[in-house]
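Two quick folds needed for the group meeting slides. Do the first one here.
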Amino acid sequence: MFGKALCSAAVVLLCCACSAGDQPSTSTGHVAGDTSAVNSCASARAAAASAPQQWNGWGIDPENSRFQSSPGLRAEQLATLHLHWAFAFPGGSVFGQPAIVGGRLYVGSDNRRVYALDAASGCAYWTFLAQAGVRTAISVGRIGPSGPVAVYFGDVSGNVYAVDADTGALIWTRRADPHPLTRITGAPLLAENRLYVPLSSSEESAGANPRYECCTFRGGVVAYDAGTGAELWRTYTIPSAPVATRRNASGTQLWGPAGAAIWSAPTIDRRRGLLYVATGNGYTEPAAETSDAVLALDLRTGALRWSRQFTPNDAYILKCGPDASTRENCPASEGPDFDFGNSPILRALPNGRSIITLGQKSGVAWGLDPDREGEVVWERRLGRGGPLGGVQWGSAADHDAAYFGITDAQHGPAVAGGVHALRLSDGEPLWRWRPANACAAPSRDCVETHSAALTVMPGAVFAGTTTGVLRAHSTTDGHVLWEFNTARRFETVNGIRAAGGALDGPGPVVAEGRVFVASGYRPSGGGGNVLLAFGPR
């Protein structure tokens, strides 16, 4: 997956010192005297569990539409957007997408800190120190009918947290899976006092090492009681546990099946009682039939109700290309690495039916019928696809159209990048916008590609580029309503030097009359470290 972090973990098969549900040993909690809080808020309003014009979680709603129906501003005001404030992540870079609920903004970073800020001014209420970087979006909700408001998130070491939204105090934490290379990249989804946590992994980065016992990780979902952290059910995307297969030329024991990580947030279908997830490639061959697929799980029990695969035989691990110095652990028939980084989006159609839509790294956008076990209603090729191509981190959909960004930098500036609008009901193209891409060679620092998640509001779709440019496009024909280059230095409300960079991974957020974007996502290091808040004049 584009953005899969490189791993330097020791050669391990299982973590003997931990098990699913164990409390982590590293202390976590409120950070007293944190330098990020030099702009501490003078007074603290009580945290809210929900509010009008909020953005809660990854996709704003349990269906992961990324459609803000009540933005607090109109499309015709976007031309007047200007910077209200900037906040710097000290000692780190951009990693997560903010949530905005009741005037508070919650956001994580790769510096292990989660911040509670005032959405209007950027002043800080509290800072929480996690065990590892926090890449996920954050979900907010009240525990039970009268309990505290909590914020929920995961880190890149596979830990899940519930933190008091008023104080930043830890309520509970759990290790989501015993595999030592587990990480949580997709946002945990909170609904009806349950927290649904998707499991991904950095094992794909470690797998080619001939001393590593490749591969034993399986993607999955863990459901927790949101109040207590008690595990309610656990479902792996590959039903069969890995078994010993063969030894490589170095004598290292190899295993399988493995892979089918879940990189994105789950999606809830209350009407059908289902939870939808999209999976990545297999790590071992033959790749499981549930890799590169959309799965439907029973909300109550986690049982697999149906699975629809889109790219079979996609067994892939990093560093297994034709120039690799060793291929001892590599699949004999290497797949194209056509993960799903998108969350499935569930939308109602005017005819009373529903559709699931999402894009794939293959460069294809899909429309699926949830009443026919994910049967393909339409498909539309938007890009050439590849390990760094196609549709990467997130699509968006309003009531009429679905919107997709294309990466494809490796195919050159003539085809890289672009935003597409397709009619929801049948996938027919409505419009396409492409950047000028004047660069002479394909480079992440030069060619504009649209890898980051998109966001839509009435009349406008927001799309950020890997060169740091954020634009608002008309939902009518794609023309640019507003743009701002975030790849520069900023003065910040917390007095720390900051600079923007790539807009990748997390998408912009629209809430309470403002547009928020975290600039500088680069999981391999060297990214920007700023959160920006824009509003109309």
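Then this one, please, same format:
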Amino acid sequence: MILFLLLIAFIAYLIINNKIKEQRKALIGEILYFLNLGNIDSLLKIYDDQVTVKSKKTLENYDNIKYLKEHENLGEVKRIVLMRQDIKRAIVGFLKENEFMQRPQYKYVANWLNGYLPLAEGFRVRIIYITSAGNNRGERLISFFAKDVKEFEQHPEYLMTKGEYNKMLKQQAKEELEEKKHDYYDKVNSIIDLVNDSKDGLIVKSKEKKLNELIQQLFDRTINSIQKVKQIDSDEWDILDNFISGIDSQVNKIIDDDKLISSYYASSDFAKIKETCNSLNVSRKEFNDYIEEKAQSISKLFGTRIVRNETQNADVYNYIRAYKKSITPFTAEVSAAVFGSAENNPIDYIIKYFYPNKSQYKEQIQKLKVLIEELETLKEAKVIIDNYKKDYEQYIQNVPDYVLENDEDGFYQRLGLAIIDEAVLNVEYRFTYTSGGGMAQRSFTVPMNEENIIELINRLESKLTQQALSKEQRALMTSKLRAQIKERDNYTCCQCGNSTSKEPNLLLEVDHIIPIAKGGLTLEENLQTLCWKCNRSKGAKLIV
């Protein structure tokens, strides 16, 4: 009977034990699935690699560096180390708190899982010393942890020969230098981008010239200089940095000041001033329109400005962004030899490059003669306009200084007063020379003042045939002749009788009685003094 009871108890024990094992196995499976560690034994091996050596000394001296040099597998070692870090982090976090804690056999499974933690760290290599006879005489373990991997990555020279290390240093220095150069190119490009984006929207258009000059300085000083620097610690970087920062500061000030001025023109304060000045504007509208017509006519004589992308030829790597720059159409890009000759004989080379068609000389001479008269009229009108500004003074109290200091002409123009742009009065021809590599750049301009225009006319006339010359030869409307005619006519309009004694700011012009276009000559008997209103009503005298 006792034996029977013992048998029953043993069978019950086996059943319960099997059930416990099944519960543990099932729980282990669920937890490993939850942790995505179904292949935990292959992920957390005791050894990740094994190296066999043939001497005791090699066994004793074998270390991490020797292993990596022989196997060149730092990337694989890093992958396993990081993978095991993630596994350890997942197991530790799981054991702190999870949804399985109340399940039967959890404590056993938790202890079992905790036993894997020593394996969930590092990369392990087993080093075995086996004699030539096949006897195992010893072994040791070397490990790689995250700090070891990081150190090898920070010091790749540990795994290099001296030659390889020096080569690496040179390559790193080269890459660092190129990266620094690109940083400076980016600084230059950011300024160019800012100006390209802002220039067209400037309220004070005259500031465009200053921006052009600043960008040109930027090109001249930086493009070649950045490329020439050979050392990462060169003092030249500080010099370049200071220069670029200075240009950037000036550019931003111009743009910021322009935004302030734009805001003021949009303000109610300016609207009140403009409304107050309305009576002055109405009385001078016709005069303003007349001055605008003359300015536009001169622009037609000399062409319009064009826009092109302009950068330095020396930028062989195209690191610098193109800069959109307005330039005069009267610019000749010439060779070094021509540039030198043009400096010595500017008028001859103006004719060669800008008046190449001899069949058009007659028409061009006629336009140049009219141009002298019109430029002189606008210069006198500018004096009168400056006088008119005084009439506005009583209405323009409390105008911010930054407006009148930066945009005086624009301010008065927005009030309705005609303004003559200096660019209209200062027409010029320009010669430029740029070397093949862009290293050298030179330019000079020939202003078209009265003296140079007269010389240009005389040179063009001298090239006409004798028959054509006799028809074209005539006196020119010089400043002296204009003054003589006005004095002769007592500064009085020969048509309406108005005079400067009655109206001090009266604009008087000297008119051809028989227009030039109809064969009239610039002789005293064909000239008369007219006020601007009478001259305007007579009809346009510019040749278009």
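Slide caption for protein two: The longest helix spans residues 162-199.
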